[in-house]
Design a protein that fits this description.
It is a single chain. The protein is α+β, with helices and mostly antiparallel strands and 167 residues long. The chain has one domain: Gcn5-related N-acetyltransferase (GNAT) (Aminopeptidase, 3-Layer(aba) Sandwich), CATH 3.40.630.30. The protein is 25% helix and 26% strand. The chain has a 7-stranded mixed beta sheet, with helices on both faces. Strand 3 and strand 4 (87-95) form a beta hairpin. The relative contact order is 0.17.
Length: 167
């Protein structure tokens, strides 16, 4: 008798300290894939090596996405640096190629927006690259609108797409 295995979909959970190295590798590999390296990109942010520690304060959360017990994606939110107290920023939402196209992006985005709203935020801001077409499509589909200029003071001066959404 053969045993059937049931394929389970991606699972989202809060980041744990043990995830730091894998999350840093995901961020660096995806940013490199899209040629988003150097100053002005999130790849140079000091928090990349300790995402768990960077998202422990009130009004922030960071998640990982697992598939078959492997961390393959991440993303979260925190108050927008240099913004008003009602605006958060969607941060570092990246996925390895084998996770893309499985609905994990929509699920993680929905979770982040729900939790940001529960935390008291009224607006969500994000920065991305024009080249990340699938991400831009997802954000638009979820109600984000394009902005003419960046908000806050994120330090990501090389991003060319800015969007926001009312929560």
């Amino acid at each position: 008798m053969s045993q059937n295995t049931i394929e389970t979909g991606p699972k989202i959970r809060l980041i744990e300290k043990k995830d730091n190295a894998m999350v840093a590798e995901i961020i660096r590999s995806v940013m490199t894939e899209f040629k988003a390296v150097g100053q002005g990109f999130s790849i140079t942010d000091t928090e990349v090596d300790d995402m768990h520690g960077a998202y422990q304060s009130k009004g922030s959360a960071f998640y990982v996405v697992e598939l078959h017990d492997r961390v393959l994606g991440c993303g979260g939110f925190a108050p927008l640096s240099g913004g008003d107290r009602l605006t958060c920023e969607l941060r570092k939402m990246y996925f390895k190629p084998e996770l893309r196209g499985r609905g994990a992006g929509a699920d993680l985005l929905k979770l982040c927006l729900e939790e940001a709203h529960k935390a008291g935020f009224k607006h969500c801001y994000l920065e991305t690259l024009n080249e990340m077409k699938e991400a831009c499509y997802l954000y638009g589909k979820q109600g984000f609108s394009h902005l003419e200029q960046p908000m806050g003071n994120t330090g990501h001066t090389s991003c060319g797409t800015w969007m926001s959404k009312t929560l």
